[in-house]
Amino acid sequence: MRKFLDISVRLIITVLALYWVLSKADISKVITLLSSINPFPAFLAVFSVFLGLSLSGLRWYIFLQPKTITPLGAIFVTLGAIFYGMFLPAGAGVDLIRGLYIGVKSGSKSQSFASVFIDRMVGFLALLSLALAALILGSKTMRHIGAFILLGFVLSLFFSVIILSRRLRKLCIRILGKIRVFHLGEKLSRFLLAFDHYRENPKTLIVGFFLSLMIQIFLGLSAYFLALALNLLKFSLDIKFLKTVVYTSVVNLITMLPISLGGLGVREGGFVYLMGPYVGVEGAISISLLYYFANILASLPGLFFIWKRRV
Questions:
Q1: CA-to-CA distance for 227 and 154, rounded, in angstroms?
Q2: Where in the chain are the domains?
Q3: For residue 224, what is the DSSP state?
Q4: pTM score, two decimals?
Q5: Contact assessment for residue 38 and residue 235, using Cβ atoms and an 8 Å cutoff
Q6: Is the pLDDT assigned to residue 172 strictly greater than 80?
Q7: Alpha-carbon distance 274 to 296, whole Å?
Q8: C-alpha separations of 49 from 36, 55, 308 in Å
Q9: d(CA 102, CA 229)
Q10: Cα(19)–Cα(13) distance, integer angstroms
Protein backbone atom coordinates (compact mmCIF):
# COMPACT_ATOMS: atom_id res chain seq x y z
CA MET A 1 0.00 0.00 0.00
CA ARG A 2 2.82 2.38 0.94
CA LYS A 3 4.65 1.63 -2.32
CA PHE A 4 1.47 2.28 -4.30
CA LEU A 5 0.99 5.64 -2.56
CA ASP A 6 4.61 6.58 -3.17
CA ILE A 7 4.36 5.87 -6.91
CA SER A 8 0.99 7.64 -7.07
CA VAL A 9 2.44 10.79 -5.47
CA ARG A 10 5.40 10.77 -7.88
CA LEU A 11 3.04 10.25 -10.82
CA ILE A 12 0.93 13.22 -9.72
CA ILE A 13 4.06 15.38 -9.34
CA THR A 14 5.25 14.27 -12.79
CA VAL A 15 1.94 15.17 -14.43
CA LEU A 16 1.68 18.53 -12.62
CA ALA A 17 5.29 19.45 -13.42
CA LEU A 18 4.85 18.58 -17.10
CA TYR A 19 1.56 20.50 -17.21
CA TRP A 20 3.18 23.57 -15.62
CA VAL A 21 6.12 23.54 -18.04
CA LEU A 22 4.00 22.89 -21.14
CA SER A 23 1.54 25.62 -20.12
CA LYS A 24 4.38 28.13 -20.50
CA ALA A 25 4.89 27.17 -24.15
CA ASP A 26 3.10 27.27 -27.47
CA ILE A 27 2.58 23.54 -28.06
CA SER A 28 2.10 24.05 -31.80
CA LYS A 29 5.63 25.52 -31.98
CA VAL A 30 7.01 22.54 -30.06
CA ILE A 31 5.32 20.17 -32.53
CA THR A 32 6.65 22.19 -35.47
CA LEU A 33 10.18 22.04 -34.09
CA LEU A 34 10.01 18.31 -33.44
CA SER A 35 8.58 17.59 -36.89
CA SER A 36 11.42 19.46 -38.63
CA ILE A 37 14.27 17.65 -36.86
CA ASN A 38 17.49 17.04 -38.80
CA PRO A 39 18.23 13.28 -38.51
CA PHE A 40 22.05 13.38 -38.67
CA PRO A 41 22.66 15.65 -35.63
CA ALA A 42 19.91 13.68 -33.86
CA PHE A 43 21.85 10.47 -34.52
CA LEU A 44 25.02 12.11 -33.16
CA ALA A 45 23.03 13.06 -30.04
CA VAL A 46 21.97 9.47 -29.39
CA PHE A 47 25.51 8.24 -30.08
CA SER A 48 26.93 10.82 -27.63
CA VAL A 49 24.53 9.63 -24.95
CA PHE A 50 25.55 6.04 -25.67
CA LEU A 51 29.23 6.94 -25.24
CA GLY A 52 28.49 8.80 -22.00
CA LEU A 53 26.42 5.97 -20.53
CA SER A 54 29.04 3.42 -21.61
CA LEU A 55 31.71 5.41 -19.76
CA SER A 56 29.36 5.34 -16.77
CA GLY A 57 29.47 1.53 -16.92
CA LEU A 58 33.28 1.59 -17.09
CA ARG A 59 33.41 3.94 -14.11
CA TRP A 60 31.32 1.51 -12.10
CA TYR A 61 33.57 -1.35 -13.21
CA ILE A 62 36.70 0.29 -11.76
CA PHE A 63 34.91 0.56 -8.41
CA LEU A 64 33.78 -3.07 -8.38
CA GLN A 65 35.52 -5.21 -5.75
CA PRO A 66 35.84 -8.09 -6.42
CA LYS A 67 35.44 -7.83 -10.20
CA THR A 68 32.91 -10.58 -10.87
CA ILE A 69 31.90 -9.13 -14.23
CA THR A 70 33.77 -8.04 -17.37
CA PRO A 71 34.06 -4.35 -18.39
CA LEU A 72 31.66 -5.01 -21.29
CA GLY A 73 29.25 -6.72 -18.90
CA ALA A 74 29.40 -3.72 -16.56
CA ILE A 75 28.55 -1.43 -19.49
CA PHE A 76 25.54 -3.50 -20.56
CA VAL A 77 24.22 -3.92 -17.01
CA THR A 78 24.52 -0.15 -16.53
CA LEU A 79 22.72 0.53 -19.83
CA GLY A 80 19.93 -1.85 -18.89
CA ALA A 81 19.61 -0.40 -15.41
CA ILE A 82 19.47 3.13 -16.87
CA PHE A 83 16.73 2.03 -19.28
CA TYR A 84 14.58 0.85 -16.36
CA GLY A 85 15.55 3.99 -14.44
CA MET A 86 14.03 6.20 -17.13
CA PHE A 87 10.62 5.06 -15.88
CA LEU A 88 11.36 4.99 -12.14
CA PRO A 89 12.19 7.60 -9.47
CA ALA A 90 15.56 9.26 -10.20
CA GLY A 91 18.44 6.79 -9.94
CA ALA A 92 16.45 4.26 -7.89
CA GLY A 93 16.22 1.59 -10.57
CA VAL A 94 19.82 2.07 -11.72
CA ASP A 95 21.37 1.61 -8.29
CA LEU A 96 19.07 -1.23 -7.21
CA ILE A 97 19.50 -3.33 -10.37
CA ARG A 98 23.29 -2.97 -10.44
CA GLY A 99 23.61 -3.65 -6.71
CA LEU A 100 21.44 -6.77 -6.84
CA TYR A 101 23.10 -8.07 -10.02
CA ILE A 102 26.61 -7.93 -8.56
CA GLY A 103 25.37 -8.99 -5.11
CA VAL A 104 24.11 -12.27 -6.58
CA LYS A 105 27.33 -12.85 -8.53
CA SER A 106 29.77 -11.95 -5.72
CA GLY A 107 27.72 -13.23 -2.79
CA SER A 108 28.41 -9.97 -0.94
CA LYS A 109 25.65 -7.38 -0.93
CA SER A 110 27.76 -5.04 1.21
CA GLN A 111 30.57 -4.83 -1.34
CA SER A 112 28.21 -4.68 -4.31
CA PHE A 113 26.17 -1.79 -2.92
CA ALA A 114 29.35 -0.05 -1.72
CA SER A 115 30.56 -0.03 -5.34
CA VAL A 116 27.21 1.41 -6.47
CA PHE A 117 27.28 4.00 -3.69
CA ILE A 118 30.85 5.18 -4.37
CA ASP A 119 30.05 5.31 -8.10
CA ARG A 120 27.04 7.49 -7.41
CA MET A 121 28.96 9.68 -4.95
CA VAL A 122 31.85 10.36 -7.35
CA GLY A 123 29.43 11.12 -10.18
CA PHE A 124 27.48 13.47 -7.93
CA LEU A 125 30.66 15.34 -6.94
CA ALA A 126 31.59 15.76 -10.61
CA LEU A 127 28.13 17.16 -11.38
CA LEU A 128 28.39 19.58 -8.48
CA SER A 129 31.89 20.61 -9.58
CA LEU A 130 30.64 21.51 -13.06
CA ALA A 131 27.70 23.41 -11.59
CA LEU A 132 30.08 25.24 -9.26
CA ALA A 133 32.36 26.06 -12.22
CA ALA A 134 29.41 27.61 -14.06
CA LEU A 135 28.62 29.64 -10.97
CA ILE A 136 32.21 30.86 -10.60
CA LEU A 137 32.38 31.79 -14.29
CA GLY A 138 29.60 34.27 -13.61
CA SER A 139 26.51 32.72 -15.15
CA LYS A 140 23.62 35.02 -14.22
CA THR A 141 21.12 32.19 -14.64
CA MET A 142 23.01 30.08 -12.11
CA ARG A 143 23.13 32.74 -9.40
CA HIS A 144 19.56 32.03 -8.29
CA ILE A 145 20.44 28.44 -7.38
CA GLY A 146 24.06 29.13 -6.43
CA ALA A 147 23.47 28.75 -2.69
CA PHE A 148 21.94 25.28 -3.15
CA ILE A 149 24.83 24.17 -5.38
CA LEU A 150 27.43 25.42 -2.91
CA LEU A 151 25.64 23.79 0.01
CA GLY A 152 25.35 20.50 -1.88
CA PHE A 153 29.04 20.58 -2.76
CA VAL A 154 30.12 21.20 0.85
CA LEU A 155 27.78 18.53 2.24
CA SER A 156 28.93 16.00 -0.36
CA LEU A 157 32.58 16.62 0.50
CA PHE A 158 31.80 16.33 4.21
CA PHE A 159 29.93 13.06 3.70
CA SER A 160 32.75 11.73 1.50
CA VAL A 161 35.25 12.43 4.28
CA ILE A 162 33.10 10.53 6.77
CA ILE A 163 32.80 7.55 4.42
CA LEU A 164 36.51 7.40 3.58
CA SER A 165 37.91 8.28 7.01
CA ARG A 166 38.76 5.10 8.88
CA ARG A 167 38.55 6.82 12.27
CA LEU A 168 35.11 8.33 11.63
CA ARG A 169 33.83 5.05 10.18
CA LYS A 170 34.97 3.19 13.29
CA LEU A 171 32.98 5.66 15.37
CA CYS A 172 29.90 5.14 13.19
CA ILE A 173 30.32 1.36 13.34
CA ARG A 174 30.54 1.50 17.14
CA ILE A 175 27.27 3.46 17.24
CA LEU A 176 25.57 1.26 14.65
CA GLY A 177 26.63 -1.86 16.55
CA LYS A 178 24.06 -0.96 19.21
CA ILE A 179 21.20 -1.34 16.72
CA ARG A 180 19.94 -4.91 17.08
CA VAL A 181 16.64 -4.69 15.20
CA PHE A 182 16.69 -7.01 12.14
CA HIS A 183 20.51 -7.07 12.46
CA LEU A 184 20.41 -3.63 10.84
CA GLY A 185 23.46 -2.37 12.73
CA GLU A 186 25.54 -5.36 11.63
CA LYS A 187 24.52 -4.94 7.98
CA LEU A 188 25.30 -1.21 7.95
CA SER A 189 28.65 -1.87 9.63
CA ARG A 190 29.61 -4.35 6.90
CA PHE A 191 28.56 -1.79 4.32
CA LEU A 192 30.86 0.85 5.86
CA LEU A 193 33.77 -1.59 6.12
CA ALA A 194 33.48 -2.26 2.37
CA PHE A 195 34.82 1.26 1.73
CA ASP A 196 38.31 0.33 3.00
CA HIS A 197 39.33 -0.66 -0.54
CA TYR A 198 38.61 2.83 -1.92
CA ARG A 199 40.43 4.58 0.91
CA GLU A 200 43.54 2.50 0.19
CA ASN A 201 43.26 3.10 -3.58
CA PRO A 202 42.78 6.88 -4.05
CA LYS A 203 43.86 6.66 -7.71
CA THR A 204 40.64 4.77 -8.41
CA LEU A 205 38.62 7.69 -7.04
CA ILE A 206 40.61 10.20 -9.12
CA VAL A 207 40.15 8.17 -12.32
CA GLY A 208 36.45 7.80 -11.50
CA PHE A 209 36.11 11.57 -11.03
CA PHE A 210 37.68 12.37 -14.41
CA LEU A 211 35.58 9.69 -16.08
CA SER A 212 32.55 11.43 -14.55
CA LEU A 213 33.58 14.72 -16.16
CA MET A 214 33.93 12.98 -19.52
CA ILE A 215 30.49 11.42 -19.08
CA GLN A 216 28.94 14.83 -18.54
CA ILE A 217 30.77 16.27 -21.55
CA PHE A 218 29.30 13.57 -23.80
CA LEU A 219 25.81 14.11 -22.36
CA GLY A 220 26.22 17.87 -22.81
CA LEU A 221 27.31 17.31 -26.41
CA SER A 222 24.13 15.31 -26.90
CA ALA A 223 21.97 18.28 -25.90
CA TYR A 224 24.05 20.53 -28.17
CA PHE A 225 23.57 18.15 -31.13
CA LEU A 226 19.82 18.17 -30.42
CA ALA A 227 19.84 21.98 -30.52
CA LEU A 228 21.58 21.73 -33.92
CA ALA A 229 19.07 19.11 -35.08
CA LEU A 230 16.21 21.47 -34.22
CA ASN A 231 17.98 24.43 -35.90
CA LEU A 232 17.99 26.31 -32.60
CA LEU A 233 21.76 26.86 -32.73
CA LYS A 234 24.36 26.97 -35.47
CA PHE A 235 27.53 24.92 -35.22
CA SER A 236 30.07 27.08 -33.44
CA LEU A 237 32.32 26.55 -30.42
CA ASP A 238 31.06 29.74 -28.81
CA ILE A 239 29.65 30.65 -25.40
CA LYS A 240 26.30 29.03 -26.25
CA PHE A 241 28.09 25.75 -26.93
CA LEU A 242 29.83 25.96 -23.54
CA LYS A 243 26.60 26.93 -21.79
CA THR A 244 24.70 24.02 -23.34
CA VAL A 245 27.30 21.46 -22.25
CA VAL A 246 27.57 22.81 -18.69
CA TYR A 247 23.85 23.49 -18.25
CA THR A 248 23.03 19.93 -19.30
CA SER A 249 25.15 18.74 -16.37
CA VAL A 250 23.16 21.01 -14.05
CA VAL A 251 19.91 19.59 -15.46
CA ASN A 252 21.23 16.08 -14.85
CA LEU A 253 21.97 17.13 -11.27
CA ILE A 254 18.47 18.53 -10.76
CA THR A 255 16.91 15.43 -12.31
CA MET A 256 18.53 13.31 -9.58
CA LEU A 257 15.90 14.66 -7.16
CA PRO A 258 13.65 11.61 -6.55
CA ILE A 259 10.37 13.48 -6.88
CA SER A 260 9.10 12.39 -10.30
CA LEU A 261 9.09 9.33 -12.54
CA GLY A 262 12.14 9.21 -14.79
CA GLY A 263 12.84 12.86 -13.98
CA LEU A 264 9.98 13.92 -16.26
CA GLY A 265 8.77 17.44 -15.56
CA VAL A 266 11.82 18.23 -13.45
CA ARG A 267 14.10 17.76 -16.48
CA GLU A 268 11.91 19.92 -18.69
CA GLY A 269 11.76 22.65 -16.03
CA GLY A 270 15.55 22.61 -15.73
CA PHE A 271 16.10 22.94 -19.48
CA VAL A 272 13.55 25.75 -19.74
CA TYR A 273 15.06 27.66 -16.82
CA LEU A 274 18.68 27.33 -17.97
CA MET A 275 18.46 27.22 -21.78
CA GLY A 276 15.18 29.04 -22.37
CA PRO A 277 16.88 32.47 -22.44
CA TYR A 278 18.85 31.61 -25.62
CA VAL A 279 16.86 28.86 -27.38
CA GLY A 280 13.36 29.88 -26.30
CA VAL A 281 10.89 28.03 -24.07
CA GLU A 282 9.59 25.86 -26.91
CA GLY A 283 13.15 25.08 -27.99
CA ALA A 284 14.19 24.10 -24.46
CA ILE A 285 11.16 21.82 -24.06
CA SER A 286 11.87 20.19 -27.43
CA ILE A 287 15.51 19.57 -26.46
CA SER A 288 14.42 18.13 -23.12
CA LEU A 289 11.91 15.69 -24.61
CA LEU A 290 14.38 14.53 -27.27
CA TYR A 291 17.12 14.22 -24.65
CA TYR A 292 14.86 11.93 -22.62
CA PHE A 293 14.16 9.71 -25.64
CA ALA A 294 17.83 9.78 -26.66
CA ASN A 295 18.67 8.27 -23.25
CA ILE A 296 16.03 5.58 -23.76
CA LEU A 297 17.35 4.67 -27.22
CA ALA A 298 20.99 4.73 -26.12
CA SER A 299 20.33 2.45 -23.15
CA LEU A 300 18.13 0.01 -25.09
CA PRO A 301 20.99 -2.49 -25.82
CA GLY A 302 21.37 -3.02 -22.08
CA LEU A 303 17.72 -4.04 -21.79
CA PHE A 304 18.32 -7.03 -24.07
CA PHE A 305 21.42 -7.96 -22.06
CA ILE A 306 19.50 -7.96 -18.76
CA TRP A 307 16.46 -9.69 -20.29
CA LYS A 308 18.68 -12.40 -21.73
CA ARG A 309 20.13 -13.08 -18.26
CA ARG A 310 16.69 -12.74 -16.60
CA VAL A 311 17.92 -10.21 -14.04
A1: 33
A2: 2-308
A3: H
A4: 0.83
A5: no
A6: no
A7: 23
A8: 21, 10, 23
A9: 39
A10: 10
